[in-house]
Write a structure and sequence with these properties.
The chain is of the alpha+beta class and 98 residues long. It is 40% helix and 18% strand. The protein is built from three helices and six strands. It has a two-stranded antiparallel ribbon.
Length: 98
Amino acid sequence: LRIRETVRTLDIVGRYGGEEISIVAPETSLEGALQLAERLRCNVASTPIETSAGALRVTVSVGVAALSPEMSRLEQLLHAADRKLYEAKERGRNCVCA
């Protein structure tokens, strides 16, 4: 729900691996993708999830990549974003890397 509140209707959201979610944002520059990622990160971190055991604080680490001329397949774009995701995790989590 928080992701859907953050993205545009033309953005594509899907599960990518176990706990990973990918967002493909057509017609978006790298700067625009960074802004989207930061909005998502703040949206998730600012509102705890209510559970039967009480409120649970959740954060996200986000990797961002943009298409480049040498990328001919979507798989290459996803791999580039995945590398940045792991960089964000290495930096201490709850951050965005591009």
